[in-house]
Amino acid sequence: MPKTAKKQIETGPKPISEIAASLGLTENDLELYGRYKAKVRLEAIRRFDRRPNGSLILVSAMTPTPAGEGKTTVSIGLTQALARLGKSVVAALREPSLGPVFGVKGGATGGGASRVLPMEDINLHFTNDFPAIESAHNLLSALLDNSIFHGNPLDIDPRKITWRRVLDMNDRFLRDIVVGLGGSLNGVPRETGFDIVPSSEIMAILCLSRSYKDLKEKIRRILLSFTYDDKPVHAGDLKVEGAVTSLLKYALLPNLVQTTEGVPAILHGGPFANIAQGTNSIMATDLALKLGDYVVTEAGFGFDLGAEKFFDIVAPYGNLDPKVVVLVATVRALKYHAGVPREDLNTPNPRLAVLGMANLRKHYENIAKFGVQCIIALNRFTSDTDEEIEAVLKAAEDEGMNIAPADIFVKGGAGGLELAEKTVKLCQAATGHSKPLYDWDAPVEDKIFTVASEIYGAVSVDYQPLAKRNLALIKKFGYDKLPVCIAKTQQSLSDNPSLLGLPSNFIVTVREIKIASGAGFLIPITGEILRMPGLSKLPAAFGIDIDDDGTITGISG
After folding, report:
1. Judging by DSSP bridges, how do beta strands 55-61 and 38-40 pair with one another?
2. pLDDT band at 508, cuts 50/70/90?
3. Are residues 297 and 425 in the same domain?
4. What is the pTM of this model?
5. 436 in a domain, yes or no?
6. Is 324 helix (H, G, I), strand (E, B) or coil?
7. Which residues contact 31 (CB under 8 A, 6 or more apart)?
8. Among the three residues 246, 276, 293, which one is the final residue of a domain in this structure?
């Protein structure tokens, strides 16, 4: 580990006021949450204009192993490497959800010498954005049920309520429940369930809003249910959008923190990419583009999920134009897609690492469809051998791929200098603009098939009966011009998690299509994807502890 990175880790983070000052922000521009984290006030955000020549760098990945490939770690390491090159750079990343923190993957603050600080605070309640979103979502649920209880003036059919409750925890027992039991004083019994907070439409709306007015208008448009004669009921019909928005007053403000090397990072929002749009708020990215010449942002899971949604949903709504995509790959993932069992991934095998490149190649080719150049970041794990790294680098270069090693977990920014230098050259050479994959005005079925065939490699799409009924409602009420945010497993290019590598001749099955009219997209749900994860037999929670001094241990990056 370089001395500068080691010193920063040993001495702890700088006061957040110093980080803010490096960006031209004063303490009057901040809402402080202790010494090391703060929110940036709207007045400060409005004071700056976007830098005309700013470069947005989007970090994505090949199809990951269940443990992930270190995409956030690479995003942070690349940010630190760009700073070492003397560039004005800011990272714009998502906030972690408590579900993965206490579940399988652990936290989402990077790792080793490439983390955002303070790690434990960020991975837990941070600045209370997630609790605010959870409260706002569930307030809307309570007000909806309350309207039915008190005479049902909107003629809502309880069997046709589409708005479920949310909880920021992996809890399979809440996926399908019955509410309203216990007699007439407790309401009208009906089936419903819980989703996890990152899948909440309130989360999606927050990440696509730029002002309180914008936020309130999007909440007003949320589809909650249908009446007995099949007319849509929106949050605005309940006249509660103001109350719901009031719970999000501070949650709308982006959070400022720092990396292990003292580079500014803005963390805001946290939708999952397998069930939502998978990237941080446009306010955070927009603010970063006002404060830095280079901005590194991240789209969750593989390019087929978060990055596709970034180009087709987030970029058009946010007027964002990535110059380069950094595609994270690992020797472990390459071997995994060559058929190596998870328990054997640490066993050296250069031949199988090269053999598994079909999945990486597909993602690399997909990026070109959006009109953006790509560079592969080969993220080194401690178990990787020099022979494996060299074999993959050579194989990729022989195929004409841009690639660079990234040893940023151990070395921090110093381990990503080659990657940073090549990324800067690609940014400087970029002359065109990114483009979406499909036209929003196309029929819904065409939009879904375009993504399924072009990005996943599917030969057709099968719509189950519920999805067909959903399509009829979507067309009837004019929601068919919205983009599609496909919910799909992250473990395969297909909708079947067991199909590794480069699947072929498969069909994508759409079970249902949810209407997120407030956020402004449709959610086709494919395969067996769930919007409320469950805990494993040995969840990460077993290893987390706190001592009498309040020091928390056991949370991985």
Report:
1. unpaired
2. very high
3. yes
4. 0.95
5. no
6. strand
7. 38, 39, 40, 41, 250, 253
8. 246
